[in-house]
Design a protein that fits this description.
Blueprint: E1 5-11, H1 19-23, E2 34-40, H2 44-53, H3 66-71, E3 72-75, H4 89-105, E4 109-112
Parallel strand pairs: 2-4
Antiparallel strand pairs: 1-2, 1-3
Length: 113
């Protein structure tokens, strides 16, 4: 049986220059972190590296996020470690959405899949 993890990556605040990112975060509070929230069947460390490397799957399809590749700084394990692991992909996907909602409520700027 596979295990899944959610993960949170801090993004450089320069990501805020992108209108699409700012529009997705109308309640962002100045000074709070900008983050990416995702889920994976790999370790968060491996998944982060794939984003940074601009990884593609065997068919050549992009499996990285543009904002993470260009603005990803580091993983924020304090924000996700206590929630992992999940034992179904559905559970991980649902919690990714919930984690993003909770962080936005705290004033973070959040991007997710």
């Amino acid at each position: 049986m596979s295990e899944y993890c959610i993960y949170v990556i801090e993004l450089d605040k320069k990501v805020l220059k992108h209108k699409k990112f700012r529009t997705a975060n109308p309640d962002y509070k100045e000074g709070k972190p900008c983050v990416y929230v995702g889920y994976t069947s790999e370790t968060p460390e491996i998944r982060f590296q794939k984003h940074k490397d601009g990884a593609r799957d065997k068919k050549g399809i992009r499996i990285f996020n543009y904002y993470v590749k260009n603005y990803g700084l580091w993983l924020k394990p304090r924000l996700y470690k206590s929630h992992n692991p999940f034992f179904s992909i559905k559970e991980a996907k649902n919690f990714e959405v919930e984690k993003a909602r909770r962080l936005r409520k705290r004033g973070y700027a959040v991007w997710q899949k």
